[in-house]
Task: inverse folding
């Protein structure tokens, strides 16, 4: 949360841009991560053929599951910001 405010203040202080809209993509990211993990698990057996070991597969499975859970729980979030120039009419 602090990063949001710091980024907003920095943008206003250092540029002629002002935020006009902000959209949370939290639930979209959670669903995207679920789909990525599902597809990763369906193809996990092919990792060895690509030169990756089980540790690599386990780390990616954990990362995708953790990130999905973080977005679903509200612990993680990502936003799409829309900015407008002060000079714009």
Result:
């Amino acid at each position: 949360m602090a990063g949001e405010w710091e980024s907003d203040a920095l943008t206003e202080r250092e540029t002629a841009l002002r935020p006009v809209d902000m959209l949370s993509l939290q639930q979209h990211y959670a669903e995207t991560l679920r789909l990525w993990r599902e597809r990763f698990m369906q193809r996990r057996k092919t990792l060895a053929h690509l030169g990756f070991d089980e540790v690599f597969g386990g780390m990616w499975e954990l990362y995708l599951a953790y990130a999905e859970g973080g977005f679903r729980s509200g612990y993680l979030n990502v936003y799409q910001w829309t900015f407008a120039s002060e000079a714009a009419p």
